[in-house]
Amino acid sequence: MNPVDVAGAAPRSPLPCVVVMGVSGSGKSSTARLLALRLDVPFADADDMHPRANIVKMRSGRPLDDTDREPWLAEVGHWLRDRAADGTGGVVACSALKRRYRDSLRAAAPRIFFLLLTADRAELVERITERGEHFMPASLLDSQLAALEPLEPDEPGTVLHGTRSPRQAVDLAITSLDEVITGDQG
What we know:
Keywords: ATP-binding, Kinase, Nucleotide-binding, Transferase. The protein is α/β, with parallel strands linked by helices. The protein has helices spanning 28-39, 52-59, 66-85, 99-108, 121-131, 141-147, 166-185, and strands at 17-21, 43-45, 90-93, 112-118, 157-161.
């Protein structure tokens, strides 16, 4: 029998933190925003957490290196840790291209679920070109594709091909999350 809160309803389990990840143009931000709305949890876009120097570097067409990413990943990790600690869960759109970046995020908030969005290069270039005002130019896409390390079996998550609409991706993500949450409780 589940314990009940003072109102007599079963208490809500702490919600997981979700990192919607992938290269530029994969649909991270749109999908993550919609997923956060559907889950009724906080949303953050890791692009908003970049130090100014990172944005300037990317706008000039130069890819970030691991030293550039360190403070940014720490900021994203703090956001995830805080959402995990307060039990609200949360969804963040974050490239998280390499395993060591994801490990850094998991060190901050161990119950992260990764949703990796993928798409064909031509589709990604088209999306990046259409969005206009973003600081990430299409010229950096190949460096991101080269850096992308797929999820490994011990990383909780799922991979979705990014040609799905954000709504379809969210439906599939919620199904995958339900399986993970149910598996954790059972």
